[in-house]
Amino acid sequence: MSRRPDLTTTAWKKLRLHVLDRDGWQCTYCGKGIEGFDATVDHIMPFVSEEESNHMHNLISACRSCNSTRQDRILTRMPWFNKRWITGL
Fold it and tell me: Does CATH number 1.10.30.50 belong to domain 5-72?
């Protein structure tokens, strides 16, 4: 059973593709082009609730390597975080 059942629904799959399309199928963290198994969608703010977490403004494209490195830590606590990424938010 999935740890996050909300991430296995048809609605999530459509949202995931929409986020990947919006971000040009590139990892937001490292800039690498992503496709297939390597293409993941990361929650900017770790899971709080289904209503709050799965919104376009809280989701970004990430390669599997960057997404698994970050895990559920807050983005600004990552050693490779660049404050310029969130300028203007």
Answer: yes
